[in-house]
Write a structure and sequence with these properties.
single chain, about 300 residues, alpha+beta, nine-stranded mixed sheet, 9 strands, about 40% helix
Amino acid sequence: MFTPAPAALRNKSYPLRIIIDALTMYSLGYSHEETLKRIKAKSSRVVSDSTLSAWLAQHDDVMSYRRLRDAGRKRFPPEQTIRSIKLYHRQVYRYAFHRPKLEMLREDGEHQRFAPLANFLEAVPLICPHAVFRTEDTGGRASQAQPAFADAGRIIVNRKENAATRAAALVIPTVGDNRRRHDRLQQFMLANDSVTVAVEVPIWLKEEDIGALEKKYGIELGTRVITGHMDFVQVRNGAVHILDYKPDARTNKPIAQLAIYALALTRLVPGLKLFDIKCAWFNEEEYCEFFPRTLFAQKRG
């Protein structure tokens, strides 16, 4: 039985993977000419300037960074726009942050108050307690937690389609190896949208942090240490957004995982409050968002 290819893959003169690479190179700050040269060197395919222009116009809905690109180029050259560091935490994680976006965040009137988040993201390679992530008997992973407070009945989940679902619909069909899905999508969104500031961000809660959170919110986390890695961190519309890509988003609802990520950020970033954070999980078809603060009632007295 014939199965048609995804719509994004049909009627293309070039493999979609080449198109995605070209979009990303341009967003990083390479000129048209430089982008075309790099595509030829990487794929041995010759692409015309008019074709590149057509690709940029066609995929404008997933390239919101284009309006900030010139400002970003003045701050960092293309090869220095994204800083990427491998974290050896039981397995290898590719932590990365977008340097111009973090600088512009500090200058943006709406989001200046999140400057401590930018400081934290830049400092992660130096301050992350890597040994804690490599030790199996000290605690648990946020992705495996099942605390009592993570009751789906206590939150309102807003389902919608947005730039993240469109980016996933474009990128995921080009990835043959399922183990590479997260990485390819992360690198695309980090380079091309205007709001993703970092990917594969490590979080950790040590014993004193867990004790303070349990006392503040009257909850039980049930372990001495919690670690994890956030797929995406975004800043937009006056809030910090924590995103998790789930291929099976309709049935796999990582409410506890995302809530713990939010709690951890409030301990790791000075001045950041749960009120400032939204969480969401998504795939190519849907984006499911909730406010983590609705899970917790701060104890009084």
